[in-house]
Amino acid sequence: MAIKINREMAGDLNNPSSELLNHCINQHQSDFWRLEKLSDYYDGKQDILKRTKDSAAAPNNKVVVNHAKYVTDMNVGFMVGNPVAYTSSDDIQSILDAYTKVDIVSHDTELEKDLSVFGIGYELIYMNQEPQTGKVFADIKCIDPRGIFLVTDDTIDTNPLFAVHYQPVYNLQGAVDYYLVKYYNDNRVLTYRAASIGFGDYQLIKALPHYFKAVPVIEYRNNEERQGDFEQAISLIDAYNLLQSDRLNDKEAFVDAILVILGFDLRDGDGERLAKERLLINTNAPGESSVSYLTKTMDENSVAILRDSLLEDIHKVTYVPNMNDKNFSGNVSGEAMKYKLFGLLQLMSVKSRYMIKGLRQRLILFANYLEIGNNNVDIDGIKIKLKPNLPINTTDIVNQIVQAHQAGILPLKVLLSWLPDIDNVDEVLEQLQEEKEEAIEMNQKAMGVQSGDSHSNLDDPPDNEDDNQDNNNNQSDNQTNQKGDQENGQNKNNKKQN
Length: 498
Prior knowledge:
- It is built from 15 helices and 13 strands.
- It has 498 residues and is α+β, with helices and mostly antiparallel strands.
- It folds into two domains: 1-257 and 296-386, no CATH class; 265-294, no CATH class.
- The strands form four sheets. The chain has a six-stranded mixed sheet. A three-stranded antiparallel sheet has the order 4-3-10.
- α4 packs across α6 and α7 (234-255) runs antiparallel to α9 (300-318).
- The longest helix has 34 residues, at 464-497.
């Protein structure tokens, strides 16, 4: 987790002292074994495997039911099974292209896994080079939280000061030869070599600038307490493993139970005959005789109740439902599934807030890098959306959109936002408008072909020459009519005078 120190006590951040590095590394090492245990539980290396018994002859089964992996894998798929969506009214294609180049979808999956297991995740943004072309680009990698940490000041803003990534370098015999320590501040990367971690001196190997204008290490939190998704259920996981292991131990002890024989005389060869023929003959005088096994009574019903209770508590504490439960049948609708996953949706609402905060810091670093090539991107208006990976009944949603649109109670832009796979509604509306215009144009062309050449140019402007000729003819006719009217009037006047 982030380590807080006083800015004045840190000294020169461009030339950190060995005392500063040792202090911060020791602080980080104090949480190492907790992170190691969480990693082991996800990998299936759980405490039941360390169980021992005083008697070597006693059954000692070690059953691991890996609920830790189940909880993490469910959360990862639920959170980032659908890629994170970035939308903006401005042009952000350059950042999206940079994300595509580094396969940001796979990176987010790995990051969310670290968050779910450790409760904390780190990513490093650095300058990389293409081996074929030699072109430099901004790359990104997840770093194991057991080998990296971020240092901030002790103000309420917790401004990042620097980050340290350390890792052992092994020789051919498998022993640690030395440690490689990389120090990142807001303008450079310093690489040190050290014989040990937490004490001693650090030998500077090289110093290189970077161009991200901030510490290129981002810390993500799973929640306020920085706890993993299954961390609070570890005792329940241990109890479940112990119960299942003891059930097998009891079964094995039942099979290997001691045989008690009363009232029989066993002679040489009777043991082999019993094992082969499964038969004993009482050769003694008539009297009481019996054969039985020495076992303890097993109450499977009580064990099953305890098992189901532990299983229910595990899913209750982690908010991850039991998908094998009968309530999750195949004919459950998407809306009904949301109510069954209500707890997981609430957990995601908390996790997504902390993750989006880190994703915005990632946008800033990539924008700072792109600015070097005069590729300025306005990231203030970018909206980040995490969509839960849920089964969705798209048919119902489309029917609701059609009904609401026909009723005219909501704008089409709002209705289209109901569809889960649409990130940019404006782009969809533009595509709809283009399709309508193309359909109208095709209809007009089809009508023109059917009606003949005389109507094939309905959309063309009228021919000016034909219009002028028609106007001239109309004017000539009007003048002729006026002349005829005048002559008729003159004749009438002459008749009256005569």
